[in-house]
Amino acid sequence: MTSSLFAEMFLILKRYRYRYLLALCSVIAANILLVTNPLIFRHALAQKLEGSFFDSIWSWGALLLFVATLGALFRYWMRLLFIAISREAERDLRERLFLRIQAQAQPFYDRYSIGDLMSRFTNDVAVYREVLGPGIMYPTFFITLVIPVLIALFSISARLALIALLPIVILPPLMLLARALVFRTSVEVQTALGGMSTLAQESLSGIRLIKAYGREGTFSLRFRELCVSFFRLSIRLVAITGLFFPFLSVIGRLVTVVLIVAAAFFSGLTSAD
Question: Less Cβ around it within 10 Å: N or C end of the chain?
């Protein structure tokens, strides 16, 4: 076990470097095919304008279907690799953390409650898995997609490419605000879960004293309050995350509509000229 989670993450990256490299190659191949598909469609439409499109329509359709299918297979393989690596890394990390905690002395357990440790084992390690899997996959997918897409867009129309870049300016501040809110709410949820686990463990370990002094009602009321607080915080976290990603999807669809309208407008100007 390393001294920090960052050092552990670099150790995992080194251990699975060949599988990460294979996953990176799958990402690059999927993005190249994703960009190639509309370029093929554009070339097919250009042939239609020349009058030779319908002579080879089945060939163009088969080619587009082949490129789309191959791109989908690479994307599936990409997700499979990243998720499998993150799951294996999570299992290894849990095992080593458990062995590390077993070797701790009594003052360690006096400083950290059982509920806090259980909460960290469930929430923090799960977030760590998300970093090693989707946390690496999606930024890699975005970076390797943006460069060829921008090249293709500027080769088609510089004005449309500049319009398509507007979300890149708008989205990062929104994402930073949303991530800060999600992080703050996640910490509150984890704290509430730790309090519930601690109270449950202390109640079970001291059940004889609780029954002897007739404090069952007090502990039951306290546990109920913690459960209600945890429930409300969890609903709030789910609501925030559930609204954020559809909001990004709506912005993406609006940008698509704006691009279509702009393309029609510029085409009209070109035809008029």
Answer: C
Q: Which residues does 238 contact at the CB level (< 8 Å), separation at least 6?
A: none
Question: 59 CB contacts (<8 Å, ≥6 apart)?
Answer: none
CA–CA gap between residue 186 and residue 184 (Å, rounded)? 5
Global confidence as pTM: 0.62
Contact assessment for residue 203 and residue 223, using Cβ atoms and an 8 Å cutoff: yes
Token couple for 229:
């607080």
Q: How far apart are CA 86 and CA 128, in angstroms?
A: 9
49 pLDDT higher than 60: no
Please, where are the H alpha helices in 51-165?
Answer: 57-102, 106-111, 114-119, 125-132, 134-156, 158-164
CB 113 within 8 A of CB 195: no
- Could you read off the pLDDT of 157-198 as tens digits, one per residue? 777 777 777 767 777 777 777 778 888 888 888 888 878 777
The amino acid at residue 121 is F
